[in-house]
Q: What sequence folds into this?
């Protein structure tokens, strides 16, 4: 990376500060105008959610966290948000794909959690069998002490196993802890069912949405709603679609080399030097500008200022 003198570093910082100030003005302007002039409830919701996410992410970068992973993960999130907001402007269908993909994500997350719970329950079944081992004759004191020591050892081993649901297993005992997991999964399944039901209702509502029907052509078929709203493009393909392929190649290579457990992240000092931090701060600021400009276009807001007068 480029290395600058202190004087030139200050010049870059001052220039960046001007852009940051403009971006802060854009954020305020979008928030002020969206509820008054936004195109629709859907557009308003997405606009404000992306403004909040962008502001939060950018502020974390500007705080210059000591964790390199935190810094580059936020940069990557910001870049993906840039891709998304460009797609929101370029494709009339994309706002629906973004908004309603949440049902798919929630259902998949719930299913994955439920499927994993079976592994931990089976592990507790094995442990319960070990706990219930009884000798053929009346156990003597030595057997009881030995058996208790063995069971305690098994619980100690359990504390170090990779799992999701085995905390407090030793305190609760394997049998009761299984019941706790099963009760949790039952509640999760109920929530999953509610989400699926809500999604079915939402699909029917979309059939009556004139704008959605005009861009998708649902033909009054709920099955077609789910099919049309599916977007299987990778981030690489999305970046290509909005002419950000070169930046995608750089950011994904750069961030992946630091976020993932690779030879690079292990063998090379991962603490960014000042020149890299300058690059991240500047790139984040430029991405922020691009995102906010596109959100302004997406929301269809007029070019005007809201002046708040006291009294």
A:
């Amino acid at each position: 990376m480029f290395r600058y003198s202190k004087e030139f570093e200050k010049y870059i910082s001052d220039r960046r500060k001007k852009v940051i100030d403009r971006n802060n003005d854009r954020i305020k302007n979008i928030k002020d105008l969206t509820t008054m002039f936004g195109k629709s409830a859907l557009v308003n919701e997405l606009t404000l959610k992306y403004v909040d996410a962008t502001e939060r992410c950018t502020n974390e970068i500007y705080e210059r966290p000591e964790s390199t992973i935190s810094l580059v993960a936020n940069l990557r999130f910001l870049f993906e948000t840039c891709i998304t907001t460009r797609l929101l402007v370029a494709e009339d269908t994309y706002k629906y794909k973004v908004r309603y993909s949440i049902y798919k994500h929630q259902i998949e997350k719930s299913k994955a959690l439920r499927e994993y719970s079976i592994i931990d329950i089976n592990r507790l079944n094995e442990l319960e069998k070990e706990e219930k081992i009884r000798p053929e004759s009346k156990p003597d004191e030595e057997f009881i002490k030995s058996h208790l020591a063995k069971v305690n050892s098994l619980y100690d081993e359990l504390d170090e196993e990779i799992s999701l649901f085995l905390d407090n297993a030793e305190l609760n005992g394997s049998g009761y802890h299984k019941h706790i997991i099963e009760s949790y999964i039952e509640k999760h399944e109920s929530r999953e069912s509610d989400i699926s039901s809500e999604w079915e209702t939402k699909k029917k509502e979309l059939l009556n949405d004139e704008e959605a029907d005009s861009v998708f052509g649902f033909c009054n078929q709920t099955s077609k709603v789910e099919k049309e709203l599916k977007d299987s493009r990778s981030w690489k393909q999305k970046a290509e679609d909005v002419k950000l392929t070169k930046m995608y190649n750089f950011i994904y290579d750069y961030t992946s080399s630091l976020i993932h457990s690779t030879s690079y992240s292990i063998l090379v000092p991962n603490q960014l030097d000042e020149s890299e931090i300058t690059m991240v701060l500047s790139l984040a600021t430029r991405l922020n500008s691009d995102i906010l400009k596109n959100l302004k276009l997406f929301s269809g807001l007029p070019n005007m200022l809201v002046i708040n007068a006291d009294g």
In short: Residues 6-100+233-299 form one domain.
